[in-house]
């Protein structure tokens, strides 16, 4: 029997269209996905670019920063577990439900958030929307482009 359960996921970083990990989300072997539209978190969060690999993170500090802009997808359980694999949930990012506004409606979506960050990160620049090729010049280093080990810190 096939699993018909569908989940909403809000992506704000490298998984968006045109960004370095979008291929992971659009690959049909990974599971089902359907684009629902542009979204914006209901709460504000710090969206920063950090670590030596220039990874975009929404930090677990609601009420700080901006309402973050991204994209909402409807995915199946298979795709959700593939996204967890990419994002190292639950050991690195944590996936949790947050309210996201899509076409004037508020819907609950999974979002990958970083809880274990150092407080100094709150002093770095906070963005509304992520683009790898943005003016910040902090280009993302893909997992395959990282020389040592499997850890992503
Ligand atoms: N990938 C996930 C979390 C941050 C990232 O680079 C996303 O795009 O939402």
Features:
single chain, 153 residues, mainly beta, 7-stranded mixed sheet, 2 helices, 10% helix, globular, binds pyroglutamic acid
Compose a concise summary of this entry:
With 153 residues, this protein is mainly β.
Can you lay out the helices and strands and say which pair or pack?
Elements: E1 6-11, H1 22-26, E2 33-45, E3 47-50, E4 55-59, E5 66-76, H2 77-87, E6 94-102, E7 105-114
Parallel strand pairs: 4-7
Antiparallel strand pairs: 1-5, 2-5, 2-6, 3-4, 6-7
Pyroglutamic acid binds at residues 11-16, 21, 56, 87, 112.
Explain what you see.
By secondary structure, this protein is mostly beta strands. 10% of the residues lie in helices and 38% in strands. Strands 1-5-2-6-7-4-3 form a seven-stranded mixed sheet. A hairpin with a 4-residue loop joins strand 3 (47-50) and strand 4. The longest helix is centred in the middle third of the chain and has 11 residues, at 77-87. It is globular and about 50 Å long. Bound molecules: pyroglutamic acid (PCA).
């Amino acid at each position: 029997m096939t699993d018909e359960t569908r989940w909403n996921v809000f992506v704000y970083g490298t998984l968006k269209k045109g960004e370095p990990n979008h291929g992971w989300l659009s690959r049909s072997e990974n599971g089902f996905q359907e684009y629902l539209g542009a979204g914006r978190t209901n709460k504000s969060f710090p969206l920063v670019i950090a670590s030596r690999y220039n990874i975009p993170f929404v930090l677990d500090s609601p009420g700080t920063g901006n309402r973050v802009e991204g994209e909402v997808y409807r995915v199946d359980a298979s795709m959700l577990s593939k996204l967890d694999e990419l994002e190292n949930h639950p050991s690195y990012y944590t996936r949790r439900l947050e309210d996201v506004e899509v076409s004037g409606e508020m819907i609950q979506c999974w979002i990958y958030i970083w809880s274990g960050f150092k407080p100094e990160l709150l002093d770095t620049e906070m963005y509304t929307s992520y683009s790898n090729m943005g003016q910040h010049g902090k280009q993302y280093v893909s997992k395959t482009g990282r020389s040592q080990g499997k850890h992503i810190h």
